[in-house]
User: What shape does this take?
Amino acid sequence: MLENSYTDDHPSTFNRDIPITCVNIDDDKSDDICASLRMIFEEVGRTLNIKSLKGISIAIGDEGYRKAIDLIDSSRQVSNGEVIGCALTITNIIEGGLESYIVLKDVSIVPLLVEEAAKDGEQVAFMLQVIAHECGHIHGDDLFHEVMGDIPKIEEYKSHYSAFVFDISIVGWSEFSACFFSAHIGQCSEQSFRDIVESKVESIVDDLESFKLMRLEPVDLLISVYKNIGNLIKFSSYYIGWMFNNELKPEKTKLYESLKNSWFLSYFLELDSIYEDILSKLSNKQLEFDEILEIGHLSKRIAEHFGFTTTVDRNNRTGIFFNN
Assistant: This one.
């Protein structure tokens, strides 16, 4: 385990005085909800480092969720793609330090809103899993920042390919680390993570093949291809983070069994090795940022598997082609 991980008897890293904002929640209910929420975060803060958490927002409905996020950071967007978000962690670097905020949608905290749900073990476990996962993001961000310091910004990458590699790497690492640090808290997420990986492994074949039939400009084709592959790497990162938390090797998992005859198995095992190497170097504080980018570079090899060739010319313009 990494040296700044916390144990159950460690004093909580949660600051009970931070504000909790309620959007579309009646005032007569908000005090009790907030009090319960502070107790949960205090317990999670005994095992995860959430010192940089500066505020929490809870919201009813999609509109309230968007509003809560916008109040913190208007540049963020609620996920409306393949996975609909029910919680979000926003972390910014302010004067060299991290400041994090968590937004929780009503579906993630039903036991705090509905009395009957508070007696439902599965709903309570799901709520704890969601909250712990968001706290896992903060714990992972803090460790990463401690070792790496300031990292490049996506706008510093001049080619579309390099920007995709950066984004896929940062998102993949973020979801892997959140699961690695938090998957022991609340509901076991193995099946949900496995389902989404298996579904994407199956659907991406048709998705990528369909792009070959479209008359897309090179940049539009690159965006379509790498967005799909990036999602597959992100979903796989959830599962591998869960694996590492449970100290499981890939061949000991149900996902490995389902991927035995799949085109994706070798890439899944490669991604597993990349994360193992990153964790080892991170724990020894020897990690270089280019090593994080290996997560994103895997996307190019997956693209090549489907016949897509990515090129970057001397002017940093990106092209992507496919072999008939």
About this structure: DSSP finds eleven helices and six strands in the chain. The chain has a mean pLDDT of 88. The two ends are 48 Å apart (CA to CA). The beta strands are 20-23, 53-59, 87-94, 97-105, 308-312, 318-322.
